[in-house]
Design goal:
- It is built from one helix and three strands.
- It is elongated.
Length: 55
């Protein structure tokens, strides 16, 4: 089981973690179609949650 997630910060999302999308990757000069998943992360949403919990 892998413990690494590829993430991409998205400023316009209204949730912390979205649904993954399959993306192409290149391994040893060979393209693998839909080789990995990238998870969108709502950075502005998470910043707001963190800042609102600070005293």
């Amino acid at each position: 089981m892998s413990r690494v997630m590829a993430v991409k910060g998205m400023p316009t999302t209204h949730y912390a973690l979205g649904h993954p999308t399959a993306v192409d990757v290149t391994l040893s000069d060979r393209r693998v179609t839909r080789g990995t998943k990238v998870w969108p992360v709502g950075v502005n949403f998470l910043k707001g949650e963190i800042y609102s919990s600070m005293p």
